[in-house]
Amino acid sequence: MGKKSLNELDSAELLSSAGINMVKSVVLTEGSDATLKQTAEDLGFPVVMKVLSDDILHKTDLGCVCLGIHSVEGMHEAYETILENARKNAPSARVQGVVVQQMLPKGFEVLLGVSTDPQFGQVLMVGLGGIYVELLKAVSMRMVPISRADAEQMIDETPLKMVCKGLRGVHYNREEIVETLLNLSKLCQKHPEIREVDVNPFILYGDRKATAVDAMVILED
Questions:
Q1: pTM above 0.90, yes or no
Q2: Sequential DSSP letters for 5-41
Q3: What is the DSSP string of 91-131?
Q4: C-alpha torsion angle, residues 191, 193, 194, 195 (rounded to 10)
Q5: What is each CA distance from 144 to 127, 199, 216, in whole angstroms?
Q6: Is 178:155 a contact under the CB 8 Å cutoff?
Q7: How many CA atoms lie within 13 A of 209 on its CB side?
Q8: Cα–Cα distance measured from residue 15 to residue 186, given in angstroms and rounded to the nearest whole number
Q9: Rounded distance between C-alpha atoms, residue 177 and residue 127, angstroms
Q10: Is the N or C terminus of the chain more exposed, i.e. has fewer CB atoms within 10 Å?
């Protein structure tokens, strides 16, 4: 059977429907000054801008992501650059627009995901996110569905156990990871056609709600 990748917006909407807190986003289909100004008022600066396409998964590699934008003029330049790079580097890709997101402050990055094992089916994973994913490969896995006890054990099997107790004076809410793992498990049960989910990063904060930034969902076609 084939696979179908959801674009970033559709992936975020699916995860949000499951109770997972996603970063606030706006989709632009045109780059007029009025539209950009309204978007800036809705989100505030700084923002991140990315291409929205079902066919472009690795946006950064193709020059289709712009970070740290602090002005409407910068948004206009980024909008044109992203579309130009998409046309140049992925000429056959279908482009639905440009996503504008709040650029969140730094926090502690967690990896959440789902993969599909040919024998066991959907498998949930959690571990250190960001630059630590490849460096440490510190992840824990369980078959779907999971219980609250499973979620707790998954955290305990990774360095996240110590992180949640406090890192450099910041204490992170362990329960936010537990609830998100349970929500992901329920989402997979509701949608057995889900083959993969990649949420990296899911950012933990000591003084605000944890938020998922980038998300990708792949379905069985």
A1: no
A2: EPPHHHHHHHHHHTT--B--EEEES---HHHHHHHHH
A3: TT--EEEEEEEE-PPP-EEEEEEEEEETTTEEEEEEEE-TT
A4: 160
A5: 16, 17, 18
A6: yes
A7: 11
A8: 11
A9: 10
A10: N
Query: Which token pair is 76?
Result: 């206009």
Q: What is the pLDDT of residues 190-216, one digit of tens each?
A: 999 999 999 989 999 988 999 999 899
Q: How far apart are CA 101 and CA 95, in angstroms?
A: 17
- The letter for the amino acid at 31 is G
Residue matched to tokens 């936010």: 176
Q: How many CB atoms lie within 10 A of CB 132?
A: 16
Q: What is the pLDDT of residues 5-50, one digit of tens each?
A: 898 899 999 999 999 999 999 999 999 999 999 999 999 999 999 9
Residue 217 CA to residue 173 CA, distance in Å, equals 26
